[in-house]
Design goal:
- With 244 residues, this protein is of the alpha/beta class.
- It has a single domain, classed as P-loop containing nucleotide triphosphate hydrolases (Rossmann fold), CATH 3.40.50.
- Helix content is 36%, strand content 24%.
- The protein has nine helices and ten strands.
- Helix 3 runs parallel beside helix 5.
- The longest helix is centred in the last third of the chain and has 18 residues.
- It is globular.
- Bound molecules: adenosine-5'-diphosphate and magnesium ion.
- Magnesium ion binds next to helix 1.
- Adenosine-5'-diphosphate binds next to helix 1.
- Belongs to the ABC transporter superfamily.
- It is found in: Cell membrane.
- One of its GO terms (molecular function) is ATP binding.
Amino acid sequence: MNEIITLNNISYKYTDEENQYALDNISFSIEKGEWIAIIGPNGSGKSTLAKTINGLVEPESGEVKVGEFDLNEQNIWSIREMVGMVFQNPDNQFVGSTVQDDVAFGLENLGIPRDQMVERVHDALEKVNMLEFAEREPARLSGGQKQRVAIAGIVALQPEIMILDEATSMLDPKGREEVLRTVKEVKERENLSVISITHDIDEAAAANRIIVMRAGKLVKEGTPEEIFSYGEQLIEMGLDLPFP
Ligand code: ADP
Ligand code: MG
């Protein structure tokens, strides 16, 4: 066993009301190099779960371990360096006025020397097949291209884990397909562990394992074949995946 993420009995609630748990006693672990898809209806706790992994949400109880680090105040920045996140709305994640400036932003913050920075930006854009758009304004890209730039920004930081929180939800089918292909390629080349929260059947099918959440609980876990075989049962649970 070579676990990169371990969650142990995580619970969390946003409000003071009793029994309003956004996360209700969740435990699971992810092996290095594994791809986990998290599916479940809106409001089931998927995003909250993802946020516990890099400390954006601090669990009320339970333990989080990422790599060799227990998640606590002392280790939080080491953990954040290991975890890159891509969010749903491609327009909310740009800070640079060109694609290359945008990808460079995180590296600038880390104080990476200029020549290394240029090389890492070039390399990251090449890996997501966006090098030809390096000088383009992010606003002038398609949704799929924007998400590939967001992925390049993460790849440039050389993390070990990439979390995609509905990163393909706002894209058209072509955009979804190109982002999914990019995630597959980057995962292999960079030896990343991936967590993708998704409503897309192809994205869920690309994972090694699927976790199903409902009302803050982890209700099912299995290979895509196992999970898809539940078919109708999952739809009755409020899932909107078009199961085959
Ligand atoms: P999902 O990502 O599966 O749609 P979330 O993790 O966003 O679910 O939400 C889980 C639960 O927590 C929902 O009941 C949601 O309304 C609630 N919630 C999420 N974010 C907040 C917040 N910032 N403040 C209060 N409640 C929240
Ligand atoms: Mg969400």
